[in-house]
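Consider the tokenized backbone below.
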């Protein structure tokens, strides 16, 4: 039997210890020549936590080599391969790690050096068993994740290799882990053994029940590190983080558009297929998804099921209510990394970013002029078509832009929102206010 000595530092070791089942095994971390000393290194942090003092062992070892008549007494744990220089350290270790077995007597190992060729040191036996060492030693070369158990490491590697050795005999679907196959087979059997005690809903997996319970408890354990938002699911937090990073990992194979969520990409792909299987019975308009049809039908029914708890205002879409809620909360989750300006809506944030990048993705098919956003393009196209959709209810005069209609309506209402606080004069239009002779003085605009 060969023994493993404690290395003095991380560079000196040639073995790595890891837990496998109920025992401690050792893996070679570099080539070992015949007769070379076996050295294992425990990290300094772990050593301090366990009371190991390797420097002391090596100082004693050096003095023994010089004075071969001095015995070294160390105290070895009966249930794991760790050794200590004092009974106090050993007792603390046993209370911390082996409290159930602490009534058993400890064994003392005494090593001596009788010749210059023999070496004495605190030694760890290769085949000693133990349960409390949790050093992560299996590191994945693809993503740098580490594992303390070989079985967990092997399962993880299937993420990269795509290996799915567990196959369903019913439908042929394959899985990377056996427990995932067992959960899947409950779908075929109709078995749902995990039931919610609050609402009676059943699930085929225990983790699905655990996630479901958060609906009743309101628990949201996954917190965003950038903003105060919390989420019930880890996946929801991962998707939310893309709001801050701007990451859009799902790219359309048909056009340059990218999306932050897979469902959004799937919805977008239907626009290329041109397939619209869901038709409105009232106006015959067709839609790519049933949820779009249901939302559209509220135009005909006048239904507004989403009500604001702050002001009582109702909306036809949940997303519209969510955006409206930011009026009350002042929440502006979309922050520009260039100028730190914040926005309450993603669309406004994306348009703003184009002021920094110079991007103008919206091109006029008539004259080739480009614009930062679609609304500006639509307004411009009316110069070619002559369309004037905004009509004054007082005189029936029409305008291309809504802002032009608003300015015109002031001629009927007499409203003059631009006020000079120095001379007291008010103006209908901002342009008239700017050309006012008091410009540059203290001025303000009426609310």
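A designed sequence for it:
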């Amino acid at each position: 039997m060969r023994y493993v000595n404690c290395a003095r530092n991380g560079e000196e070791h040639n073995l790595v210890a890891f837990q496998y089942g109920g025992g401690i095994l050792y893996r070679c971390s570099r080539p070992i020549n015949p007769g070379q000393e076996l050295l294992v290194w425990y990290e300094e942090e772990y050593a301090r936590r366990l009371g190991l003092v390797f420097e002391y062992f090596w100082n004693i070892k050096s003095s023994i080599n010089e004075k071969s008549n001095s015995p070294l007494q160390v105290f070895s744990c009966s249930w794991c391969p760790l050794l200590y220089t004092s009974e106090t350290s050993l007792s603390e270790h046993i209370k911390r790690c082996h409290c159930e077995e602490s009534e058993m007597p400890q064994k003392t190992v005494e090593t001596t050096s009788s010749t210059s060729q023999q070496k004495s040191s605190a030694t760890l036996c290769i085949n000693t068993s133990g349960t409390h060492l949790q050093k992560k030693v299996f590191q994945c070369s693809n993503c740098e994740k580490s594992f303390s158990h070989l079985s967990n490491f092997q399962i993880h590697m299937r993420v990269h290799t795509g290996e799915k050795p567990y196959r369903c005999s019913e439908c042929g679907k394959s899985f990377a882990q056996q427990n995932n196959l067992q959960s899947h087979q409950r779908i075929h059997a109709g078995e749902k053994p995990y039931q919610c005690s609050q609402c009676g809903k059943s699930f085929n997996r225990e983790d699905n029940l655990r996630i479901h319970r958060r609906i009743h408890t309101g628990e949201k354990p996954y917190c965003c590190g950038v903003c105060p938002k919390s989420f019930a699911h880890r996946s929801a937090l991962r998707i939310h983080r893309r709001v801050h990073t701007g990451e859009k990992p799902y790219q359309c194979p048909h056009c340059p558009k990218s999306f932050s969520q897979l469902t959004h990409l799937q919805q977008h792909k239907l626009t290329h297929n041109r397939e619209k299987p869901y038709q409105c019975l009232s106006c015959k308009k067709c839609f790519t998804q049933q949820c779009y049809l249901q939302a559209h039908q509220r135009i005909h029914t006048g239904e507004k099921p989403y009500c604001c708890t702050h002001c009582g205002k109702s909306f036809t879409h949940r997303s519209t209510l969510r955006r409206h809620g930011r009026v009350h909360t002042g929440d502006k989750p979309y922050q520009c990394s260039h100028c730190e300006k914040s926005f309450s809506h993603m669309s406004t944030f994306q348009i703003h970013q184009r002021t920094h990048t110079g991007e103008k993705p919206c091109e006029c098919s008539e004259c080739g002029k480009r614009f930062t956003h679609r609304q500006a393009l639509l307004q411009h196209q009316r110069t070619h078509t002559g369309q004037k959709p905004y009509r004054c209810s007082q005189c029936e005069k029409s305008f291309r832009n809504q802002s032009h209609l608003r300015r015109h309506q002031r001629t009927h209402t007499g409203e003059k929102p631009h006020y000079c606080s120095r001379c007291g004069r008010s103006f209908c239009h901002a342009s008239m206010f700017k050309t006012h002779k008091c410009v540059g003085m203290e001025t303000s605009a009426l609310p």
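Residues 49-72, 100-136, 442-447 have pLDDT under 50 and may be disordered.
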